[in-house]
Amino acid sequence: MNRFANPAGHRAPHKPALLLAVLDLAEAGRLPRNEIEYGTELLERFVIYFRVVSRQGDRFTPYNPFGRLAREGFWHLEPNPGRGPVVASPKFTSHADVHRNVAFASLDAGLFDLIQRPATREALRRTIIERYFPDHARALGDVGRREHAANAYERVLEERVAGVARDAPAPELQARDAAFSRVVRSAYDHHCAACGLRMIADDTGHSLVEAAHLIPRPAGGDDPRNGIALCRNHHWAMDEFLIAPGPDMRWRVADFIDDRVDPACFLLPLRDRTVAGLRDKRYSPFAESLRWRVRQLRHPATPT
What average pLDDT does this structure show over 19-43? Predict the structure, then answer.
């Protein structure tokens, strides 16, 4: 009997989809320790697979498999202080419920070691797909190839920040964008570096913060230190050269914006505020990228 099937015989996709997401975290170098956090990095990968394999009536409830996998014996939940009794019989009903009760999940030590190795990780991926999603094998193969390219490039970008020099060909633009976005947004813990808001969609767990290049491609490249995390409004404002983070990590606002009538006057409180959200100074933006942005700020039109 299929352990992940419901009484009607339908193969519930949630647990195996979550395990595919965990394999992707390992491939991207996001699991240096045996601690699987219930957060955006995991959920954004989960939803990629869930959308392929789910059927009508399958609800997006990743908090269910995150708890219920503990029944399988290889998945273990580390409770937050005082939450041990709840985690002993987990029946989570929301994202907040998981965060309130669980610090992280871990795998059996031997399994964790296996998913760090490319060959055994790929074998596990094939086994999950063949057993639980044979009807979606082709679609999942296409998704897997795209994610493999993005995961590999994400690891390259992380190593670049860490000072590890490694020659690696850049993948196609879609994979480059995905990797750059994940690394930059994670560096700011999905906070907008301008307004400081952390925006996660309740229905998918997807981060609504975007990764913005400071110096645009191709001149600026994909190094995460040529990027900054911004909400959509402030991303637009920076692309329009109305705002810029300076080398002192404080925001500049174009001088010509009128606080009485200009529709961009909502940007004025940002002036001289510090860049928000950066949780690891290794990802601090390049000074030259910041200077470039300040030089591009728009100035009042010269009267004719």
Answer: 96
Are 84 and 34 in a shared domain? yes
Cis preceding-peptide flag for 81 (omega within 30 of 0): no
pLDDT at 196 over 80: yes
* Predicted confidence (pLDDT) per residue in 130-156, tens digit: 999 999 999 999 999 999 999 999 999
Same domain, 252 and 198: yes
Range of the domain at 150: 14-154
* Domain edge (last residue) among 135, 154, 173: 154
**Rounded CA separation 59/101 (Å):** 22
- Asked if the model's pLDDT at residue 112 lies above 50, the reply is yes
Over residues 253-281, mean pLDDT? 88
Residue 196 is assigned to a structural domain of this protein: yes
Q: What is the pLDDT of residues 210-220, one digit of tens each?
A: 999 999 988 88
Q: SS in 3 state form for the chain?
A: CCCCECCCCCECCHHHHHHHHHHHHHHCCCCCCCCECCCHHHHHHHHHHHHHHCCCCCCCCCHHHHHHHHHHCCEEEEECCCCHHHHHCCCCCCHHHHHHHEEEEEECHHHHHHHCCHHHHHHHHHHHHHHHCHHHHHHHHHHHHHHHHHHHHHHHHHHHHCCCCCCCCCCCHHHHHHHHHHHHHHHCCCECCCCCCECECCCCCCECCEEEECCCCCCCCCCHHHEEEECHHHHHHHHCCCEEECCCCEEEECCCCCCCCCHHHHHHHHCCCECCCCCCHHHCCCHHHHHHHHHCCCCCCCCC
CA atoms within 13 A on the CB side of 250: 5
